[in-house]
TrEMBL record:
It comes from the Bacteria. Residues 144-232 form the HTH LytTR-type domain. InterPro entries: CheY-like_superfamily, LytR-like, LytTR_DNA-bd_dom, Sig_transdc_resp-reg_receiver. PANTHER family: STAGE 0 SPORULATION PROTEIN A HOMOLOG (PTHR37299:SF1), TRANSCRIPTIONAL REGULATOR-RELATED (PTHR37299). This is Two component transcriptional regulator, LytTR family. GO terms for molecular function: DNA binding; phosphorelay response regulator activity. It comes from Chryseobacterium polytrichastri. The modification 4-aspartylphosphate is found at D56. The keyword Phosphoprotein applies. Keywords: Phosphoprotein.
Amino acid sequence: MTNLTIVSVDDEYPALQLIKQYCNQIEDVDLLKGFQNPEEALEYLQENKVDLVILDINMPYMNGIELLEKMPYKPLCIFLTLETQYAVKAFELDVVHYLVKPVDFETFKKAVDKAKNFLQFKKSVENKKQEDFIMFKSNYIMNKVLLEDIKWIQGFGEYIILITSLKKYMILERMSNFEEKFQNLGFIRIHKSYIVLSSHISSYDTGNVYLKDGDKLPLGRTYKNFLKAHLN
């Protein structure tokens, strides 16, 4: 089993040291970074995909909930905080666990183990044979499109344009919603305005993604490392 990759964010240095100490005692986890500044954490997380973030909530400049909501992808999350009034919000964000400081090692380990088990289950589901088409509504009509026919998806505010080898479909849906709904089929965000199927990617460089059919799309700077990690 691949190690669970973790980033911790807490404006209090002793809390970060305690998380590091706890993580060192748990098998199959890899604490990559610890940040006191949430803005620096967000910048790192935009460039690097991790499995789990352990977040304090009440921090200067940006609280943990805001940080989680601004991320370009949705990792597993454990809130580790002194605050108790955000539990309902945490539930709405589908966090793995909500821990109130101080937290002993066994309680912390149970929360991390829960994240490990959830990730393992998710990967096992994704590895099963997937359908070779998607269904969506466009112009009040349900449409079925084969994955092999989809060229890319482009975002326009509240709408997305799904471009196939035969026609274009305008869909009333945000990019983030489409990405979350169909990411298990191999769709990947390469730019704030573009999503493609990873199986259709031929190559990429510093500013572009090249598809197997010869099309070229822009590669956003904040998505480059995410793309690299996904394809590797």
